[in-house]
């Protein structure tokens, strides 16, 4: 502790610690988007003289970040060429009849795919297929969507390419002088973790997964029977005027729940059954997708016209398509309302309604603040929907008939991806070079267009990882990492090496639930590395411990972006994730330190 106090006498170390604490507060509060928090932290370290611009910005030119950018494009080419078609057909086939059999496919097939392809597009591609499978069998998606997310997380640590966090750790290791990670550096640890984790998914009690959709009013054979929130207006000539809601045709003809009545500046909450309807009233409804489409043709009510979102005229409806779109983790739409976003003007698309897990929305549709995991019901021309598909802010969950993969390019795309993995393994060609050559080959081979390469890159991820790497350099240069490590070493003194590794792993896992996994790695890796000599382990053992601690995130929806992606479609509640993931987290907490010791003890 005295050493930490001495280091904090250094103004630069004190500034670094202050910026670090500010970043943690911003990550936890969500006041700024994660990538903006990273950019702010980097700017403050430059402005205060802790880092030179060259050192602070070095992360944006790192091989790991360039590799990740290329990997986004390769993944997009694989999906566009239909590389996952066979898997999608298998899931949709009659051979997969039970949730346990589907979970087996997710763990044993989807998991390994996530080891070489970023898991976010894998989940995005399989979500509509699995939802459709559930609807046909009258099962709740909540029974299988969390296993989908967890399977991709488990597979993401099979190779270096499985996760952006893996590449970030490789970059940090190189910056700190310990060399970058190879493609299969931690595969020997990742394989038993994947196998044990998949076994847990297969045999965990089904009672741990909630049933959120077997109610007859919300769930049936038709995929359109899911509850949405929308707003309607009572026109002057409506036959509902003067009637009570209880006696009106609105509730006799449609399966709707009236959540609020708005009359001028007044708001009336349930019970509303006996309240008389007046011209100009606005009703906030929870309604099935099918009934919402019927309401569009109903002249007794109108979908409320809003400044930012005016419903198309009825004559235009046949020229448009209605699709579901999910707000993924990192979407720039999150945190703003449709009115603020001017959604219709920007995207030439109308948001008819949206749903958010099991929550009840009490704001007007245009004023409700969008959150990651929300599902929007969007009506737009086909060209506009294709524009939404190309955006990183929304994941369109419906397949367009004219957007089927170009199967003629599938063998080419798969061959290029396999060569991308094999060549750096058997030759001295760096991985970053192999990935970039694969991108060019995908474009030349017609698997993806040049413009689609640019759109495939997740700019929010690139900005976050590139900016956060400056923290590791600052903590190392100011001596803060070494001082924090000495303080932690004092707390871990006299503990067996296995116990010390277990504590470091668990601390990283818990930290990741509060802030992003990328931030956890950047903040904890420089500190953990300093503990290696005292534990008689190579620095790489501590680096891998932090990597797995940040990656094996099964406790909260925010812990990993795929958890958040399935949270809305599965209509989960916060503690659903914790209940299902607690056993897996406990299992990994005892397993992973032992595997790391087995791999690195005596090295």
CA-based shape? globular
- Strand ordering within the main sheet: 3-2-4-1-5
By oligomeric state, this entry counts as single chain
The whole-angstrom Rg is: 26 Å
First-to-last CA distance: 30 Å
Counting helices, strands and paired strands, the structural category is alpha+beta
Quote the beta fraction.
5-15%
List the helices and strands and how they pair.
Blueprint: H1 2-7, H2 11-29, H3 34-47, H4 53-56, H5 63-80, H6 85-92, H7 99-113, H8 119-136, H9 145-155, H10 164-175, H11 187-203, E1 227-233, H12 249-253, E2 256-263, E3 266-268, E4 282-288, H13 289-296, E5 302-303, E6 321-326, H14 338-341, H15 343-347, E7 350-355, E8 375-380, H16 382-390, E9 395-396, H17 410-426, H18 431-444, H19 450-456, H20 459-477, H21 480-492, H22 497-514, H23 517-529, H24 539-551, H25 561-567, H26 574-600
Antiparallel strand pairs: 1-4, 1-5, 2-3, 2-4, 6-8, 6-9, 7-8
Fold and architecture overview:
The protein has helices at 2-7, 11-29, 34-47, 53-56, 63-80, 85-92, 99-113, 119-136, 145-155, 164-175, 187-203, 249-253, 289-296, 338-341, 343-347, 382-390, 410-426, 431-444, 450-456, 459-477, 480-492, 497-514, 517-529, 539-551, 561-567, 574-600, and strands at 227-233, 256-263, 266-268, 282-288, 302-303, 321-326, 350-355, 375-380, 395-396. By secondary structure, the protein is of the alpha+beta class. It folds into 3 domains: 2-50 and 479-600, no CATH class; 65-214 and 407-459, no CATH class; 227-403, Regulator of K+ conductance, C-terminal domain (Alpha-Beta Plaits), CATH 3.30.70. Strand 2 (256-263) and strand 3 form a beta hairpin. Helix 7 (99-113) packs antiparallel against helix 11 (187-203) and helix 24 runs antiparallel to helix 26. It is globular, with a radius of gyration of 26 Å. The two termini are 30 Å apart. Mean pLDDT is 81; it is low at 214-226, 306-318 and 401-405.
């Amino acid at each position: 502790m005295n050493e930490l106090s001495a280091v904090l006498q250094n103004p630069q170390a004190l500034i670094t610690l202050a910026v670090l604490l500010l970043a943690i507060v911003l990550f936890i509060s969500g006041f700024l988007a994660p990538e903006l928090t990273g950019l702010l932290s980097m700017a403050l370290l430059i402005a205060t003289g802790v880092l030179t611009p060259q050192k602070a910005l070095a992360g944006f030119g790192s091989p790991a970040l360039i590799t990740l950018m290329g990997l986004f494009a390769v993944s997009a080419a694989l999906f566009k060429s239909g590389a996952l078609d066979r898997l999608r057909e298998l899931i949709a086939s009659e051979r997969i009849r039970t949730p346990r059999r589907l979970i087996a496919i997710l763990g044993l097939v989807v998991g390994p795919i996530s080891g070489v392809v970023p898991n976010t597009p894998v989940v995005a591609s399989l979500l509509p297929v699995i939802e459709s499978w559930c609807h046909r069998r009258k099962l709740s998606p909540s029974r299988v969507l969390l296993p989908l997310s967890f399977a991709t997380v488990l597979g993401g640590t099979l190779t270096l390419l499985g996760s952006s966090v893996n590449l970030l750790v490789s970059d940090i290791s190189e910056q700190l002088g310990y060399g970058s990670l190879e493609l299969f550096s931690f595969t020997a640890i990742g394989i038993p973790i994947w196998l044990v984790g998949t076994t847990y998914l297969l045999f965990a009690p089904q009672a741990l997964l909630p049933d959120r959709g077997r109610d007859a009013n919300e769930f049936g054979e038709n995929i359109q029977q899911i509850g949405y929130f929308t707003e309607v207006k009572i026109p002057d000539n409506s036959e509902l005027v003067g009637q009570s809601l209880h006696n009106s045709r609105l509730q006799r003809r449609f399966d709707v729940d009236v959540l609020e009545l708005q009359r001028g500046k007044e708001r009336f909450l349930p019970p509303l059954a006996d309240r008389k309807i007046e011209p100009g009233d606005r009703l906030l409804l929870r309604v099935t997708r099918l009934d919402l489409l019927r309401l569009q043709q109903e002249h007794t009510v109108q979908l409320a016209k809003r400044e930012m979102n005016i419903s198309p005229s009825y004559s235009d409806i046949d020229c448009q398509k209605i699709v579901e779109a999910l707000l993924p983790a990192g979407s720039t739409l999150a945190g703003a309302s449709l009115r603020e976003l001017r959604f219709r003007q920007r995207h030439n698309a109308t948001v008819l309604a949206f749903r958010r897990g099991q929550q009840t929305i009490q704001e007007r549709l245009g004023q409700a603040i969008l959150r990651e995991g929300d599902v929007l019901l969007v009506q737009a021309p086909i060209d506009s929907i294709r524009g939404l598909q190309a955006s990183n802010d929304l994941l369109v969950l419906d397949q367009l008939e004219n957007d089927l993969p170009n199967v003629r390019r599938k063998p080419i795309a798969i061959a290029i991806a396999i060569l991308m993995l094999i060549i750096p393994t058997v030759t001295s060609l760096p991985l970053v070079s192999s990935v970039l050559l694969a991108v060019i080959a995908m474009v030349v081979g017609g698997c993806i267009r040049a413009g689609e390469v640019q759109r495939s890159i997740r700019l929010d991820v690139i900005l976050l990882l590139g900016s956060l790497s400056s923290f590791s350099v600052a903590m190392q240069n100011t001596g803060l990492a070494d001082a924090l490590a000495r303080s932690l070493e004092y707390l871990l003194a006299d503990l067996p090496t296995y116990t010390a590794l277990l504590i470091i792993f668990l601390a990283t896992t818990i930290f990741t639930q509060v802030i992003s996994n990328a931030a956890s790695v950047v903040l904890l890796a420089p500190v953990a590395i300093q503990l290696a000599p005292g534990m008689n382990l190579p620095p790489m053992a501590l680096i891998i411990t932090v990597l797995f601690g940040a990656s094996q995130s099964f406790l909260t929806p925010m812990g990993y972006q795929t958890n958040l992606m399935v949270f809305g479609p599965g209509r989960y509640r916060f503690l659903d994730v914790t209940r299902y993931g607690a056993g897996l987290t406990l299992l990994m907490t005892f397993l992973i330190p032992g595997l790391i010791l087995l791999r690195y003890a005596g090295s």
